[in-house]
Design a protein that fits this description.
Structural class: mainly alpha
Strand content: under 5%
Number of domains: 1
Shape: rod-shaped
Number of strands: 2
Length: 135
């Protein structure tokens, strides 16, 4: 008796219509989820690129300040060294990202940091060394 009922249910076109409807809804939801995941991945990539660009800007500005005679604290150097690490890691993971902008600036910062670390001549307050000499 149960077998006959099951056969009748499965044989009915209404049952298969419901199954087909549910499968189509699932496929539609899966497609929407895939689109959302794709958009989220693109947004994540954009955020990472913006962080790398921001780090590069910090690096270039800091190097310019060093070249202009602005002294910085050791803490500020460490922050820029973190920016260098972030930037270089991004560049390694994204070989098509333009890296040539900051290569020399990074080298300049590292050399200056090593020299100041060796001499322990970091500026405690930061600022322009010319302004300090005038006081």
């Amino acid at each position: 008796m149960w077998q006959e009922i099951l056969i009748a249910v499965f044989a009915s076109s209404g049952f298969w219509a419901v199954v087909q409807y549910l499968l189509q809804r699932y496929d539609g939801k899966q497609k929407q989820l895939d689109e959302i995941c794709d958009k989220l991945n693109r947004l994540s990539e954009r955020v990472e690129t913006n962080a790398a660009t921001s780090a590069r800007t910090h690096i270039l500005r800091f190097s310019d300040e060093l070249s202009s005679g602005v002294n910085h604290s050791q803490e500020y150097f460490r922050q820029v060294m973190d920016d260098i690490d972030t930037y270089e890691q991004f560049c390694m993971e994204h070989p098509r990202f333009r890296n040539s902008y900051a290569v020399m600036a990074t080298q300049h910062i590292r050399e200056t940091y090593a020299e100041l670390l060796k001499k322990q001549e970091f500026n405690i307050n930061g600022g322009d060394k010319n302004a300090e000499n005038e006081q």
